[in-house]
Amino acid sequence: MGDHMYPSKVLKDGPKPGRKFSTLDEMILDADGFAGVFPEYKYEIVKRLEGLGHLCAMTRDGANDAPALARANVGIAVEGATDAARGAADIVLTEPGLSTIVHAIRQSRIVFQRMRNYSIYTCAVTIRIVVGFVVMAFAFKFAFPPFMVLVIALLNDGTIMTLSLDRVLPSNQPDHWDLTEIFTYAFGYGICLALSTSVLFAVIFHSSFFEDRFGVDRIKEANKHSGSPNLAFLHMIIYLQVAIISQALIFVTRSHSWFFMERPSAALMGAFLIAQLISSLIAAYGNWGFTDVQGINATWI
């Protein structure tokens, strides 16, 4: 704190003629503090600072400080404050000192980052599901079973619930919602994943690449006999691809740089591995005639 201290009477009488300050506002801006102020003076200081376009915060504990606490942009009631001060404040400290404010700001920015990651991920997955299956429906007459979309959604929901416990890096600057950024990232991720599924389907359906390179089932021959792209085991192949990359996308959306540069929480990693295991077991043993899917061999998995 500096040494530009003034007595409280200047707040009532104003600066003396001939001094370097022509108005009380100029004196308040220059002051490092005022001595012996009454509650109404505190309110006046806050009011004038806000009138000059400044954001004003105040910390107090007494009942007579409630008007100034309520007037400030951020009113902070310190530990042991009266009920009136607590009721008027925006932040109530429960421990001595101001270090709790730093902790609160850090935690709030962590929560904000988790919400941002969740928003980008959910929007991206929605776009990839809608765009990907619409493209395949119109381009290849491929009808993906709705029940399998529900299975994908349930596994994804189980994974993203752990985002509330994820390890994230708080920003160094105050956060704000940038919907343009969120939807831009989500649209980019969603379109890329939708295209990857469409390209995979086209390669499987119109070529023998996987049969020749990996010795998997002869899909082209099965298609010739059936005359339709809606084969039960082809449904399962697409399900597995969509499930795997949709769940893996969460590691991309949560990172500000390369996904492998920011270590996820154990809860998120565990949920991802469990979801991958369940998806793989469904792909291997899910012979469900009611939804037209058939288990695939280990080569595809």
Automatic annotation (TrEMBL):
Recorded GO MF terms: ATP binding; ATP hydrolysis activity; metal ion binding
Membrane topology: Multi-pass membrane protein
Gene Ontology CC entries for this record: membrane
Keyword vocabulary terms for this entry: ATP-binding, Magnesium, Membrane, Metal-binding, Nucleotide-binding, Phosphoprotein, Transmembrane, Transmembrane helix
Membrane-spanning segments: 118-140, 186-210, 230-253, 265-285
GO biological process: monoatomic cation transport
Location relative to the cell: Membrane
Source species, domain of life: Eukaryota
Recorded family membership: Belongs to the cation transport ATPase (P-type) (TC 3.A.3) family. Type IIIA subfamily.
Family matches, as NCBIfam families: ATPase_P-type
Name by which UniProt lists this protein: Plasmamembrane-ATPase
Lineage of producing organism: Eukaryota, Fungi, Dikarya, Basidiomycota, Pucciniomycotina
